[in-house]
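Build the 3D complex.
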Amino acid sequence: MVLEGAVSAASLCYCTRGMAISRRTFLKASVGGAVGLSALGFDLAPVHAAVRQLKIRNAREYKTVCPYCAVGCGTIAYTHGSGGLNTTSTVIHVEGDPDNPINGGTLCPKGASQMQLAISPRLRKSPMYRAAGANEWQEVDWDFAMDWFARKFKESRDNTFMERDAQGRTVNRTNGIAWVGSATVANEDAYLITKTMRAMGLTYIDHQARV
Amino acid sequence: MASLAATFGRGAMTNHWKDIKNADVVLVMGANPAENHPCGFKWALEARDENNATLVTIDPRFTRTSAVADKHMQIRPGSDIAVLGGLIRHMLANDLYHADYVREHTNASFLVSGDFGFEDGLFSGFDEAASAYDKTSWSYQRDAAGFVRRDMTLQDPQCAFQLLKTHYERYTPAMVARIAGCTEEKFLEMADIICSTGRADRVGTIMYAVGWTMHTVGSQIIRTAAIIQLLLGNIGRPGGGVNALRGHANVQGATDHAIVAEMLPGYMKVPTPAQTTLREYLDASTPTPLVADTVNYGGNSPKFFVSQMKAWFGDHATAANEFGYQYLAKQDGDATWLSIWDKVRQGDIEGFISLGFNSLLAGPDVPRLLESMSKLKWKVVIDPFLLDSAEFWRVPGMNPAEVQTEVMYMPTTHWIERDGSFTNSGRWVQWKEKAIDAPDGVRSDTYVLSELFWRVKELYLQDGEDAVYNEPIQNLTWDYLNPREPTLTELAKEINGYDRATGRLLSSFGELRDDGGTSAGNWIYTGSYTEAGNMMARRGTDDPTGLGMHHDWAFSWPLNRRVLYTRASADAEGRPWDSTRPGIAWNGSRWIGDVADYGATTPPGGPGAFIMTEEGVARLFSNHLVDGPFSEHYEPVESPTTNALHESVAVNPILNWYDGVRETLAAEGDDFPYACTIYRVVEHEHFVTRNVPLLVEAMPDFFVEVPEGLAALKGIENGGRARVWSKRGEVEGVAIVTKRIKPLLVNGQTVWTVGIPVHWGFVGITQGSMANLLTPYIGDANTRCPEFKAFLVNIERAEPRTT
Amino acid sequence: MPDTLAIKRISASPSALIPLASLRSGGPVYSKLVDISKCIGCKGCEVACKEWNDLKVEQTTNFGSFQSHKDLSSNTWLLMRFNEVELGDGDDLTWMIKKDACLHCEEPGCLFACPAPGAIVQYQNGIVDFNQDNCIGCQYCVSGCPFDIPRYDKETKTVAKCNMCIDRVEAGLEPACVKTCPTNAIEWGIKEDMLALADKKIDRLRERGYEHAAVYNPGGVGGTHMMYVVPHGDRLEDYRLPAHPTASPGQLRGLNVLQRVGSYLLGFGVISALVHFLAVGPERPEESV
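Done.
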């Protein structure tokens, strides 16, 4: 048709450009504007076909809470991945949960960039051990790390445990180990920290509320 | 928050985020919510624009909160009590307080011992040798029945109200101006706005944060604010309150669950060696009524404690073994942050474990902290990211070979890889979903704790009869489906608690018993996970009150109550002070509105409104803090001026001075003429956001905020570099020369203030000076929160970097 | 509501002169409303914009300001600008913080100036979008913009600016900056509703003593689809808002040959289409839905 030639000449046609499009990707020409204009006899669909596809279109949604301050903004984490056994899903975007009455879907710059925190390449993936006086870390496995931790913990507890104080009163404590943190763990872990460390006899226990 | 509990009975933020929209006046002081709590701050602007509220800020800097406030007043760091004390005087002198509320809901009428006094900066009972007060004289007069004597006319010179009036009489506008550096006119302008809510039909809120807590008088600053809000009748009411804005996602929850030196879950006290039996412990921690008619809810403490011991030790906690009371460590003296590092410094503490915490950058006095840290035998750092605190042995300038500390770093999951709940500042406990799996090689905090527990337990079993006392470890309940990594749902149910006979999840802490028949890991969370399901995961958005209470959204401790001290929202007859903003109201047969803290069907006219105090009312006069029943202005330990009220007692007289600290403070003759304060900015969350490229881009470099006039004096150019040093350390970075900090006339001399943000260290995408190199190693008399917010420095121009 | 993205104007085409509006029944016309009196300068919008649009993180350096970048760039479409201004005697400090980004003019100077057919598209809903695939990198749009918004990217040799998150708008979502704004300082809706809201906000500001409070929706560009509520309407220059910005299709004249060629070609297409339409009648869509 004449018309198609004209539009091509005007570089409006994207049909021959294939997948080489940089930031933008095709959206199937489904939208009303095109239909309206086609009444004229030519189709401008390719113009807005350039609008990229909504990146969260096929994502799964999880309702979570922002990890930063204590406003407690509700967030929705959008993840990508089918959930298949040989796949790992990842966070592709996080934005505010509009249903949450506290933040109503809004987020500050920290909240708005939490996707970068969630999947940061700086997150570590192995325990590391630094020997006394050493210049560097060495990677160790979890079994080594936990074995070392338990032995050090017990050793210091044994070294410093006090059943009775100077006045003969039962105190059942170790003042040789301190536990600090955290104001960023879930309540349930916070509770388990207190339960475990108090049972172990620690009294030097504190977290970020102090500093 | 020690001072809120000392005044109202509970330490938490009194109201909640969305409630701020109901206020007529919003005072932001000791906080910068536009930067540190932006999405919560929206409700302050909602009040300003939709409720015709006036929003005011009082701060050493003109902040991004000030940028949208109606009025801002600049004060000198550390002068807060002078300003707040001035407000108390102003409202008493001009009859601006809410007289009916004060008579009904506070201890204004309570008569105090004739031995109580205050002179030259010291309250009665000061023991100089012990650096402490003997609080005997800070007590009430009792009648024959042992109850407090009252004068409802508030005229008796020994009643709390008259003593209060006398105490703050010295805080005249002229004195406020002299100490804080504002003008009298400006102070009076602010005072008129703030005191305008001392009426039934108006209500005001105060938003504060660590700008108040982090002083050597931190608790008393907050006490003063609490007194103000009581005098104005703003406690218990929607739109009112003293609202502590918490910094971390779950700092409230971690405190509720007592990762805290002095507390057990639910704000029960840690036992001391003097409490040799369960009976003695319970007697000491269970308050007895001071008036005939008080709910004195704390009287139920034995039920909460025994139920917690049942949750921890199950069948091993019986009446015969004092419910396992002797399993608990008895603590001597202070065990908080500063004391921990002091003990490390002395070589008493061998091992240190930090989880989700940057124990180096947190400060204060990083050079001293580093010296202490290097004395540890071992350190474990558990965190998703490798932190400065894990790498303290290679802080620039240190020789790793000289640090003999063994360090283990363990990467654990973060929030999005686990479910579980966070408790926000306003006590809303919200359950979150897990979004993604942790990568291979990363384990959960729950795993680390469980694995540590099992391995230590097994090591003790191997020791056989020679083992050091480990009965509590062997007897600790750990009956989870996967004992090496319990689910957070299992733990949530344990926290909520069960009827042990039937296994039924409890729905209220009213069901708890002291005979071992119930268990509850943390009584204030009872009701959060009931037979009806996980209350923390509820997503109902209805708000029938229109006041933003949203009772069907998540769970709010206690018992889903949204505003604390609700009974005080109504008058003696149970009518709301303001019918347009009712907290609860008596409808003739029951209380309607918010979840009543008073029995739902207990008619008005009975016990006092503050159920958590032995007095049944809130305390204008309180003997619960160690440094005074009223607040008093003391200078920061490093101050650019003398104490204008009493030169001989310049600083808080009962501070704890750790060994060697006095030598690290600016002394007479040292050249540290400028006040300095440290803070965060909105683009950062403490230290972790150094890992987020978008945030590093948004606020990239360490900087120093320098007032224009001071910059001119020192030849510092905007965008150039400045060096700032204290007696303890120095920092260097880009200078932001600003109009937002003005010189102040304090005590007849000009005082300049310099501002420094906390964020940087030597690990992360962005690196820069650690602000806590500068800060002093001294804490509040009550809480030992370090005095980060007011100290002295010097400043000079630094040359541009050559690289 | 999803938006149909009906087109109004295309650069270097006759539609730049005669908008296609008459060819379409009116759909919703949107606008952002930025209430400067509610803005806390948190940069939530700035960061959300970059996150949503996958814009590159740039190396920034503090240059003596809370402002992150000195200027907009092809990878920073939205910049919070900070300006400390003393209005009166020194006790009256105002920290003017302004969200700087494309205003989406009703009469878009960039589009009028653009010689590359299809590089700039204006939609009926008010959005002015750049399509880098058609951009020839001539930067005429930069000079055509009365607000100094579009920025050239040396690497891609194209110009970029805010696209109002057109992908979100199409899906019925608000732009990322609007969604995230912690204090609701940026609102989004039908332009008429936003104008009414602006009036209400100005009333409140005047009550609060801002006697010069005004809405910024300059007529010289036919109004904008990002409007501001300006507390100090008498100090527009302090907010870097031009007092009299102008743009008109007339700018099309005087532009270069390439642009003319492009527009004539497209004009020829349209005329041919009309002929075709008159002769053959409307074309039927091949697939029925």
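Residues 281-289 of chain C have pLDDT under 50 and may be disordered.
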